[in-house]
Amino acid sequence: MAGRTGRRPGDTSTRDQILAAAREAFAEKGYDGASIRGIAAGAGVDPALVHHYFGTKDKLFLAGMNVPIDLDALVKQVLGAPRDEVGVRLVRAMVGVWDSPAGASAVAVLRSAMSNVEIARMMREFIVSQLLSRVIAGLGIDRAEAPLRTALVLSQVVGVAVTRHVLHLDPIASIDAEQLVAAIGPTVQRYLTGDVLPPR
Amino acid sequence: MAGRTGRRPGDTSTRDQILAAAREAFAEKGYDGASIRGIAAGAGVDPALVHHYFGTKDKLFLAGMNVPIDLDALVKQVLGAPRDEVGVRLVRAMVGVWDSPAGASAVAVLRSAMSNVEIARMMREFIVSQLLSRVIAGLGIDRAEAPLRTALVLSQVVGVAVTRHVLHLDPIASIDAEQLVAAIGPTVQRYLTGDVLPPR
Where the record puts its DNA-binding region(s) (chains A, B) (predicted)? Predict the structure, then answer.
């Protein structure tokens, strides 16, 4: 783990070098496939330095995508709600991110994902493994049902992001965030905890 | 209306010429802004010839996008259902289109819409004015609520198309169409006829 730590740790360019290596690794190997160790090697620094600058892999990913959100706080906020309000809380959190300054970058990533399978995979793996799987686990949802519920939530959340921020479809493009939460929240609630499988 | 009808009407290239002019007009002026007359002028033919080959504007649009579906039959099929089954029928019809050979072209249009505002507008106007507004009118839905309901339906339907056909998110990407209908149908039903506005 000696690494080629030629640059001084305090160097601004070291941080940028790590971010560039991270973007490349995530795009090439997906979120799950990329490793801190591999990214450190790509940037020519010690893995400890990557941890020092960015903490965990999810934080490095968000920094690389230029989406400065606190995912831990967001998940905690969603799971702090009563079980039957989790849908509304999750939509409120997601709309809050899309509508924030960080949202512009998130939308840019979404747009790239439409024409680039590697970016699509990276984004999908990140959302599933970092956001939705933590919510699903926090709700104690059956593991066998988790993938379908996760994908359904994603289908609605991505659909809102696309209609609001890419296709600019009114009134979704201009509607007040809380109206959107009232309309979409119950859908996400049902996908998380309701009846979504066809009767046998 | 004399037009520059130099080519023989039976010419294969006349048909292609009209389609090319149609694609250009729809992309440039949107679905609502483009006219049969303008498209005929662009192709250097009489408007009557455009009607002869393609019928109405919606059919010309679908032919231009290479999405050979019968929209009239589709709308009739959806509206033929009892009111509380319209959501399921609409999702079944849309999934049927996306999954058909015509669906590949529809997905290509969707993909283009993500990076091109003109194509986004064209697609949005077509879906809203040709498909959803006919369903909304057929259901006798309050005109004041129609735009929000339409946009909500679109947000879910586009979200499914993106996760199933662009992001390839399993299990939505590989799930049986009827399972998707069972999961998504009730959402669309609520967006069309249920309670979607926040309590005052």
Answer: 35-54
